[in-house]
Write a structure and sequence with these properties.
Elements (H helix, E strand, L loop, with lengths): L7 E5 L4 E6 L11 H19 L5 E6 L4 E3 L4 H4 L5 H20 L4 E5 L2 E3 L1 H7 L3 E5 L5 E3 L13 H9 L1 H10 L3 E2 H7 L4 E3 L4 H13 L12 H7 L2 H19 L4 H13 L4 H16 L2 H16 L5 H4 L8 E4 L3 H12 L4 E4 L3 H20 L8 H5 L2 E4 L10 E4 L5 H14 L5 E4 L6 H5 L8 E6 L8 E6 L5 H13 L3 E6 L6 H17 L4 H11 L5 H8 L1 H15 L8 H7 L12 E3 L4 E3 L1 H6 L9 H21 L6 H12 L8 H8 L1 H15 L7 H9 L9
Parallel strand pairs: 2-3, 3-5, 4-6, 5-7, 6-8, 7-10, 11-12, 11-14, 12-13, 14-15, 15-16, 17-18
Antiparallel strand pairs: 1-2, 8-9, 16-17, 19-20
C-alpha cells in the first residue's frame, strides 16, 4: 500500500534552523485541513523535544508551493460542521495548536512569498515575525466574512493587538487582502525582502533574531489613533461607528460583521486564552447559520465551476499571449481594460475612429479608477494602459491567440466580422463571441474553422461582474473550450458552462423576471413600489432600474427573441412598447422609468401618468412572487433541456450575473426554502388570476409530486 506523503515536513539545516515546510501533495495550494493540522501538531511535539535539548534555535514556516503561503482552511470541512458546539470545538482545537506554536521558546518566523489568507494569516500571526517577499503576489488577508464567518484560529484576537483596532476592523469586516507594502505600513509585516534571494535572506533574519538583532515592530498608529484606541471612551466610539457602518451597508442580514465587532470589543482587554474562548464561541454560532451555509455552498459551487471540464480537456488549453477585442463600445472597452488589467496585451479594434477613441477612453478611465481605489498599484496604471493598442485595421491580428467579438447584436453583422477576422488570424486562434442572446452555433456556421468558435458572454459592467458564460457550439473543439476556460481564469472570472440555447441561462431567467414589470404596471403597481419590493428582498437594484440600465430598445429586442423561442410564457407585455413610443430608452437618453440628473434620480411623472388608473396596487409579496417564481419556473425548463449541468450552476450564475442576494444562496436555494409543493401551488394560484405564463413547468410538477429538492438532482 502506497502511503500518501505528509502535507508538511520538518527539516533542520546546518545552522540549527528548523524549517516547517507546508507542501500538500497533489494540490496547487496549501490548505489547513484536518490532516495538515494534525501533522502540524505532531511536528510541534517534535520541536518541543528538540528545543529542550538545545536545537533548533529558530523555526521558519515555509511553503513548498510557489506563489502561495497558505490559502486558508478547507471550505469542504467547514461545510461538514454539524452544530454550534462542533464548530466551537474545531475552532478551539485550531487555537490550541497555534497557541502551542506561539509558546515555543525560540524565534518563530512566517516566510510569506505569495498569498497568505485566512487560517494561513492566523498561523502567521502566531509567529514572532512575519517576513514577506517583494513578489507582486505577496498579500495577506482574512476573508472569512465572505463566508459568513469570523477568523476563528486566533485572528480576531491577535490582529487588533498587533496593528490596532481600526485597521483590524477594516481587514476583518471587508475580507480584503492587503499588499505586502500596506501590511508593512500597518506593522503586520516586519520586513520585505527580495524574492530572488528570499530563502537565504529569511535564514539570515532568523539567525539575527536568535542573537536579538531583529527589532520587533509595533503598530504604527498616529498619536490621535493611539489616544482613541487606548481609552475606554475612544474604543466605545470606534466600535459604535463600526456597527453603524455595517448596519447602513447590509443591516442585520449578514451576522458575521457584527459578530466580529462584538468579539474584538469584548476580547481586546482579556488575557489571550480568555479572548480565544470568546472567539471560538462566536465562530461556533456563525458556522451553522443559514447565511454561512449559503455562502459556503456558493463558494464551493464557484470552485467546482472552474473545474467543470475534465483534466484531460483542460490540459488542451493553448497559451494566451495576446487578445483582440472587436467593437469599441462600452462592453468592448470594458473587456479590453479587463484584459490589460491582468497584464495581457490587447488589441481594441473598431471601424469608426470616434468609436475607437470612446472605447480607449473608457478603458483608460476604468484603469485610473482602479488605481485610485487601490485595486491596481497607481504606478502601474499607465503601464497597463500601454498594453491596449487601438486600431482601425487588422494589423497584428496574426499574433493573436483569442479574439473576442463585441459588436452590435445582429447576426449578419457578427457573421461578417467573423469572416473578416478569421482571414487574418493564425490557425490556432479561437474566435469568442460576446453575444447575449444569439445562437453561437449559427454564428459558427459562417466560420472556415467552426471548431475554433465559442461563446464568451461577459456581463456589464465587465470589471465588476464576476461571471462569464461559456457557450459550446455543436462544433467547438475541446481545445477551444479549454482555452476559453483558461482565459476566464486569467481574467479573474468564474466560468459557467452553458448550452447554446436562447438567452443561455442568466438572460433566459431574467427575461420573465423583467417582463413581469409591464404586467405589474398594468395591474396597478407603481415603479417605486416594484423596485422597493425587490430591493427589500435583497436584489442590488429593482427591475425597473435594471431595465433603465439595459435600455428599453435592447430589452424589447431580447423580449421578442425570447417570445419567438419559448412562446406564450415569454409573451411581452405592452408596457415597454408604450414607454418606447414615448421616446424613452432608459439611462442612455436619461429618460426611462426614472429621470437622471447630477443631483437626483426620481420616478418620472410621465411614466406614472401612462399607467394611472390601471388597478388598485399590488402587494410587495405578490410583486416578489410574480417576478421571481417565474424565474424559478423557467429555470426548471432550462434544467430539463440541459442548459446547465445542475441547479448549483443556476444559483451561481444568478448570484454572480445578476446580484441575486448571496445570503439567500441563489434562486433555487431560495425556492428550496419555500418547498416544491408551495411553489407549485402559488404558481397555480397566480395562473388562475393572471394567465398561463404562470403554468408550472413539468419539472416542478414532478418535484411537487415527489416532495423533491430544487437544489439536488435534475427535475
Amino acid at each position: 500500500m502506497v502511503q500518501t506523503p505528509a502535507p508538511l515536513r520538518l527539516e533542520i539545516d546546518a545552522d540549527k534552523i528548523a524549517w516547517l515546510v507546508f507542501d500538500t501533495p497533489g494540490a496547487q495550494v496549501n490548505l489547513l485541513d484536518i490532516r495538515t493540522m494534525r501533522h502540524l501538531d505532531r511536528c510541534l511535539s517534535e520541536l518541543e523535544s528538540r528545543i529542550a535539548t538545545g536545537h533548533p534555535v529558530a523555526v521558519i514556516l515555509w511553503s513548498g508551493k510557489p506563489g502561495t503561503f497558505i490559502a486558508g482552511a478547507d471550505v469542504n470541512e467547514i461545510a461538514k460542521v454539524e452544530d454550534a458546539e462542533d464548530g466551537r470545538a474545531k475552532s478551539a482545537e485550531g487555537q490550541r495548536i497555534f497557541r502551542r506554536l506561539e509558546r515555543l521558546p525560540v524565534p518563530k518566523i512566517a516566510a510569506i512569498d505569495g498569498v497568505c489568507l485566512g487560517g494561513g494569516a492566523e498561523l502567521a500571526l502566531a509567529c514572532d515575525w512575519r517576513i514577506a517577499s517583494n513578489s507582486p503576489g505577496s498579500a495577506i488577508g482574512l476573508p472569512e466574512v465572505r463566508l459568513g464567518l469570523i477568523p476563528g484560529f486566533g485572528g480576531s484576537v491577535r490582529l487588533p493587538r498587533l496593528i490596532g483596532i481600526q485597521r483590524a476592523l477594516s481587514m476583518v469586516l471587508t475580507g480584503r487582502s492587503v499588499s505586502a507594502a500596506t501590511a508593512y505600513r500597518y506593522g503586520l509585516i516586519d520586513q520585505i525582502l527580495d524574492a530572488d534571494r528570499f530563502r537565504s535572506s529569511v535564514a539570515l533574519v532568523a539567525l539575527d533574531a536568535v542573537l536579538g538583532r531583529v527589532e520587533r515592530l509595533h503598530s504604527r498608529l498616529s498619536a490621535r489613533d493611539r489616544l482613541l484606541e487606548g481609552t475606554r471612551v475612544g474604543r466605545h466610539v470606534l466600535f459604535g461607528k463600526a456597527r453603524k457602518r455595517v448596519l447602513e451597508m447590509s443591516g442585520r442580514i449578514y451576522p458575521a460583521p457584527l459578530a466580529a465587532i462584538d468579539v474584538i470589543e469584548e476580547s481586546i482587554n482579556l488575557s489571550i486564552d480568555e479572548a480565544l474562548a470568546v472567539e471560538a464561541e462566536a465562530l461556533g454560532r456563525l458556522l451553522t447559520t443559514p447565511v454561512c451555509r449559503n455562502l459556503v455552498r456558493l463558494f464551493r459551487l464557484g470552485q467546482a465551476a472552474k473545474k467543470a471540464l475534465p483534466p484531460d480537456v483542460l490540459a488542451q488549453a493553448r497559451g494566451i499571449d495576446r487578445v483582440a477585442v472587436l467593437g469599441a463600445g462600452v462592453m468592448g472597452g470594458g473587456i479590453a481594460e479587463l484584459v490589460a488589467a491582468n497584464d495581457i496585451p490587447v488589441i481594441l479594434k473598431d471601424i469608426d475612429e470616434e468609436a475607437l477613441d470612446v472605447g480607449l477612453r473608457h478603458a483608460s478611465e476604468l484603469l485610473q479608477k482602479a488605481g485610485k481605489r487601490g485595486i491596481i498599484p497607481p504606478a502601474e496604471v499607465g503601464l497597463k494602459f500601454a498594453l491596449v493598442h487601438g486600431t482601425l485595421t487588422y494589423e497584428r491580428f496574426d499574433e493573436v491567440d483569442v479574439v473576442i467579438e463585441a459588436v452590435i447584436e445582429r447576426l449578419p453583422v457578427k457573421r461578417n466580422v467573423l469572416r473578416e477576422a478569421e482571414e487574418m488570424l493564425p490557425a490556432h486562434a479561437i474566435f469568442a463571441t460576446n453575444t447575449s442572446s444569439l445562437s453561437v452555433t449559427e454564428l459558427g456556421k459562417a466560420a472556415a474553422r467552426p471548431e475554433r468558435v465559442v461563446g464568451l458572454h461577459f456581463f456589464n459592467p465587465v470589471h465588476r461582474m464576476p461571471l462569464v458564460e461559456i457557450i459550446r457550439t455543436e462544433s467547438s473543439s475541446d481545445a477551444t473550450l479549454a482555452t476559453a476556460f483558461k482565459l476566464a481564469g486569467q481574467l479573474g472570472k468564474t466560468p459557467v458552462l452553458v448550452a447554446d440555447r436562447p438567452g443561455f441561462i442568466v438572460n433566459r431567467l431574467l427575461a420573465p423576471y423583467l417582463n413581469e414589470v409591464g404586467f405589474l404596471l398594468e395591474n396597478g403597481a407603481d415603479v417605486a413600489g416594484i423596485d422597493r419590493a425587490l430591493t427589500s428582498f435583497g436584489m442590488p437594484m429593482g427591475p425597473c432600474r435594471l431595465l433603465d440600465e439595459v435600455g428599453f430598445d435592447v430589452a424589447e429586442h431580447v423580449a421578442k427573441e425570447m417570445a419567438r423561442a419559448f412562446g406564450d410564457r415569454m409573451r411581452p407585455s405592452a408596457a415597454l412598447d408604450t414607454l418606447t413610443n414615448l421616446g424613452r430608452l432608459g439611462r442612455k437618453n436619461s429618460r426611462g422609468f426614472y429621470t437622471y440628473s447630477d443631483r437626483e434620480q426620481r420616478v418620472d411623472r410621465e411614466v406614472g401618468r401612462a399607467f394611472r388608473g390601471a388597478g388598485g396596487g399590488v402587494h410587495p409579496e405578490e410583486i416578489v412572487d410574480r417576478c421571481l417564481l417565474l424565474a424559478v419556473n423557467e429555470a426548471l425548463y432550462a434544467l430539463a433541456e440541459g442548459v446547465v449541468a445542475g441547479a448549483g450552476d443556476v444559483d451561481l450564475a444568478m448570484v454572480l450575473g445578476t446580484g441575486f442576494p448571496p445570503f439567500r444562496g441563489g434562486l433555487m436555494a431560495w425556492a428550496e426554502t419555500r418547498g416544491a409543493r408551495a411553489v407549485r401551488d402559488r404558481l397555480l394560484e397566480l395562473r388562475q388570476r393572471h394567465g398561463d405564463r404562470f403554468a408550472p413547468a413539468p419539472g416542478l410538477e414532478r418535484l411537487a409530486a415527489s416532495d423533491g429538492s430544487f437544489t439536488s438532482g435534475r427535475p
